[in-house]
Amino acid sequence: MDAVPGVILAGGRASRMGGGDKGERLIAGASLMERVIARLGPQCDGLAINANGEPARLAAYGLPLLPDTIADHPGPLAGVLAGLDWAAHRGADAVVTVAVDTPFVPRDLVARLQASAGDEGLALAASPGADGVIRRHPTCGLWPVALREDLRAAVQGGLGKIVLWTDRYGAGRAEWPSTPVDPFFNVNTPEDLAEAERLAAILGKI
Description:
Spore Coat Polysaccharide Biosynthesis Protein SpsA, Chain A; seven-stranded mixed β-sheet; two-stranded antiparallel ribbon; 6 helices; 9 strands; globular
Protein backbone atom coordinates (compact mmCIF):
# COMPACT_ATOMS: atom_id res chain seq x y z
CA MET A 1 0.00 0.00 0.00
CA ASP A 2 1.13 3.55 -0.68
CA ALA A 3 2.88 5.41 2.10
CA VAL A 4 0.90 8.36 3.42
CA PRO A 5 1.82 11.36 5.57
CA GLY A 6 0.40 11.70 9.07
CA VAL A 7 -0.92 14.64 11.05
CA ILE A 8 -1.23 14.85 14.82
CA LEU A 9 -4.31 16.86 15.75
CA ALA A 10 -3.36 19.17 18.62
CA GLY A 11 -5.48 22.21 17.83
CA GLY A 12 -7.91 21.90 20.75
CA ARG A 13 -7.90 24.25 23.72
CA ALA A 14 -7.71 21.53 26.41
CA SER A 15 -10.37 23.26 28.50
CA ARG A 16 -11.04 20.16 30.62
CA MET A 17 -7.32 19.94 31.40
CA GLY A 18 -7.16 23.56 32.52
CA GLY A 19 -5.92 24.91 29.20
CA GLY A 20 -2.49 24.94 27.61
CA ASP A 21 -0.98 22.35 25.29
CA LYS A 22 -2.50 19.00 26.15
CA GLY A 23 0.22 17.27 24.16
CA GLU A 24 2.83 18.43 26.69
CA ARG A 25 1.22 16.52 29.57
CA LEU A 26 3.45 13.69 30.76
CA ILE A 27 2.74 9.98 31.12
CA ALA A 28 5.56 8.00 32.75
CA GLY A 29 8.06 10.68 31.79
CA ALA A 30 7.05 11.03 28.12
CA SER A 31 4.66 13.64 26.78
CA LEU A 32 1.48 12.72 24.97
CA MET A 33 3.00 14.23 21.83
CA GLU A 34 6.17 12.16 22.15
CA ARG A 35 4.14 9.00 22.56
CA VAL A 36 2.00 9.65 19.48
CA ILE A 37 5.07 10.54 17.41
CA ALA A 38 6.83 7.35 18.49
CA ARG A 39 3.87 5.19 17.48
CA LEU A 40 2.66 6.97 14.36
CA GLY A 41 5.93 8.19 12.88
CA PRO A 42 7.28 4.82 11.67
CA GLN A 43 4.00 4.18 9.84
CA CYS A 44 3.98 7.40 7.83
CA ASP A 45 5.79 9.21 5.06
CA GLY A 46 6.44 12.27 7.18
CA LEU A 47 4.56 13.83 10.12
CA ALA A 48 3.15 17.27 10.88
CA ILE A 49 1.33 18.80 13.85
CA ASN A 50 -1.96 20.65 13.57
CA ALA A 51 -1.88 23.33 16.27
CA ASN A 52 -2.73 26.99 16.66
CA GLY A 53 -0.97 29.80 18.43
CA GLU A 54 2.75 30.52 18.78
CA PRO A 55 4.66 27.94 16.70
CA ALA A 56 7.96 28.28 18.60
CA ARG A 57 6.56 26.39 21.58
CA LEU A 58 6.46 23.16 19.55
CA ALA A 59 9.70 23.71 17.63
CA ALA A 60 11.55 21.07 19.65
CA TYR A 61 9.65 18.32 17.85
CA GLY A 62 11.14 19.39 14.52
CA LEU A 63 7.88 18.84 12.63
CA PRO A 64 5.91 21.17 10.35
CA LEU A 65 3.20 23.08 12.22
CA LEU A 66 -0.14 23.38 10.45
CA PRO A 67 -2.55 25.95 11.94
CA ASP A 68 -6.25 25.78 11.18
CA THR A 69 -7.09 27.58 7.95
CA ILE A 70 -10.62 28.35 9.18
CA ALA A 71 -10.99 30.86 12.03
CA ASP A 72 -12.60 30.56 15.47
CA HIS A 73 -11.63 26.96 16.34
CA PRO A 74 -14.38 25.16 14.42
CA GLY A 75 -13.21 21.78 15.74
CA PRO A 76 -11.13 18.80 14.65
CA LEU A 77 -12.45 18.81 11.09
CA ALA A 78 -10.53 22.05 10.59
CA GLY A 79 -7.39 20.20 11.63
CA VAL A 80 -8.17 17.39 9.22
CA LEU A 81 -8.62 19.98 6.48
CA ALA A 82 -5.26 21.58 7.30
CA GLY A 83 -3.71 18.13 7.06
CA LEU A 84 -5.35 17.47 3.71
CA ASP A 85 -4.06 20.76 2.32
CA TRP A 86 -0.54 19.87 3.50
CA ALA A 87 -0.80 16.39 2.01
CA ALA A 88 -2.02 17.80 -1.29
CA HIS A 89 0.96 20.19 -1.38
CA ARG A 90 3.24 17.15 -0.90
CA GLY A 91 1.57 15.34 -3.78
CA ALA A 92 0.04 12.68 -1.52
CA ASP A 93 -3.29 11.02 -2.23
CA ALA A 94 -4.37 10.81 1.43
CA VAL A 95 -3.43 11.68 4.99
CA VAL A 96 -3.82 9.85 8.30
CA THR A 97 -4.79 11.81 11.40
CA VAL A 98 -4.41 10.93 15.08
CA ALA A 99 -5.46 13.01 18.07
CA VAL A 100 -2.61 14.03 20.36
CA ASP A 101 -4.61 12.79 23.35
CA THR A 102 -4.53 9.12 22.19
CA PRO A 103 -1.11 8.01 23.52
CA PHE A 104 -1.61 4.29 22.83
CA VAL A 105 -2.56 4.54 19.14
CA PRO A 106 -1.92 1.20 17.36
CA ARG A 107 1.35 0.54 15.57
CA ASP A 108 -0.60 -0.96 12.66
CA LEU A 109 -3.05 1.94 12.39
CA VAL A 110 -2.17 3.10 8.88
CA ALA A 111 -2.13 -0.33 7.21
CA ARG A 112 -5.43 -1.36 8.71
CA LEU A 113 -7.14 1.93 7.91
CA GLN A 114 -5.99 1.58 4.30
CA ALA A 115 -7.27 -1.99 4.16
CA SER A 116 -10.67 -0.91 5.53
CA ALA A 117 -11.20 2.19 3.40
CA GLY A 118 -14.62 2.67 1.78
CA ASP A 119 -15.22 3.38 -1.89
CA GLU A 120 -14.25 7.04 -1.48
CA GLY A 121 -11.03 6.17 0.37
CA LEU A 122 -12.22 7.15 3.86
CA ALA A 123 -11.76 5.03 6.97
CA LEU A 124 -12.15 5.57 10.72
CA ALA A 125 -10.74 3.62 13.64
CA ALA A 126 -13.06 1.86 16.09
CA SER A 127 -12.90 -0.20 19.28
CA PRO A 128 -15.36 -1.59 21.84
CA GLY A 129 -16.16 0.46 24.91
CA ALA A 130 -16.59 -0.91 28.43
CA ASP A 131 -20.15 -1.87 27.49
CA GLY A 132 -18.95 -3.88 24.50
CA VAL A 133 -20.45 -1.48 21.96
CA ILE A 134 -18.14 -0.70 19.03
CA ARG A 135 -17.48 3.03 18.83
CA ARG A 136 -15.75 4.96 16.10
CA HIS A 137 -12.87 7.29 16.89
CA PRO A 138 -13.31 9.92 14.20
CA THR A 139 -10.12 11.87 14.88
CA CYS A 140 -8.13 8.72 14.04
CA GLY A 141 -8.77 8.20 10.36
CA LEU A 142 -7.64 8.01 6.75
CA TRP A 143 -8.71 10.96 4.61
CA PRO A 144 -8.46 11.18 0.79
CA VAL A 145 -7.11 14.39 -0.68
CA ALA A 146 -9.73 14.16 -3.43
CA LEU A 147 -12.43 15.13 -0.90
CA ARG A 148 -10.70 18.11 0.64
CA GLU A 149 -12.76 20.77 -1.15
CA ASP A 150 -15.95 18.97 -0.14
CA LEU A 151 -14.71 19.02 3.45
CA ARG A 152 -13.74 22.68 3.22
CA ALA A 153 -17.24 23.59 2.08
CA ALA A 154 -18.78 21.54 4.89
CA VAL A 155 -16.61 23.13 7.61
CA GLN A 156 -17.18 26.62 6.25
CA GLY A 157 -20.89 25.82 6.28
CA GLY A 158 -20.76 25.10 10.02
CA LEU A 159 -20.51 21.30 10.10
CA GLY A 160 -18.71 20.25 13.27
CA LYS A 161 -19.54 16.60 13.85
CA ILE A 162 -17.05 14.45 11.97
CA VAL A 163 -19.21 11.37 11.45
CA LEU A 164 -21.96 13.39 9.77
CA TRP A 165 -19.47 14.12 7.01
CA THR A 166 -17.75 10.72 6.91
CA ASP A 167 -21.09 8.87 6.79
CA ARG A 168 -21.97 10.94 3.75
CA TYR A 169 -19.02 9.37 1.93
CA GLY A 170 -19.33 5.82 3.24
CA ALA A 171 -16.28 5.71 5.48
CA GLY A 172 -14.96 2.24 6.22
CA ARG A 173 -14.28 1.09 9.78
CA ALA A 174 -11.12 -0.56 11.06
CA GLU A 175 -11.65 -2.26 14.43
CA TRP A 176 -9.19 -3.07 17.21
CA PRO A 177 -9.78 -4.94 20.48
CA SER A 178 -9.77 -2.89 23.66
CA THR A 179 -7.77 -5.37 25.72
CA PRO A 180 -5.40 -5.24 27.50
CA VAL A 181 -5.61 -1.50 26.76
CA ASP A 182 -7.98 0.39 24.49
CA PRO A 183 -5.57 1.77 21.86
CA PHE A 184 -7.83 4.79 21.45
CA PHE A 185 -8.09 5.70 25.13
CA ASN A 186 -8.08 9.47 25.11
CA VAL A 187 -6.90 11.89 27.75
CA ASN A 188 -9.33 14.74 28.39
CA THR A 189 -9.16 15.32 32.15
CA PRO A 190 -6.62 15.06 34.99
CA GLU A 191 -8.36 11.81 35.97
CA ASP A 192 -7.80 10.45 32.46
CA LEU A 193 -4.14 11.38 32.74
CA ALA A 194 -3.83 9.34 35.93
CA GLU A 195 -5.56 6.39 34.24
CA ALA A 196 -3.21 6.69 31.26
CA GLU A 197 -0.28 6.43 33.65
CA ARG A 198 -1.71 3.15 34.91
CA LEU A 199 -2.30 1.85 31.39
CA ALA A 200 1.21 2.81 30.32
CA ALA A 201 2.58 0.57 33.07
CA ILE A 202 0.57 -2.34 31.61
CA LEU A 203 2.00 -1.78 28.13
CA GLY A 204 5.49 -1.35 29.48
CA LYS A 205 6.90 0.83 26.67
CA ILE A 206 6.05 3.87 24.58
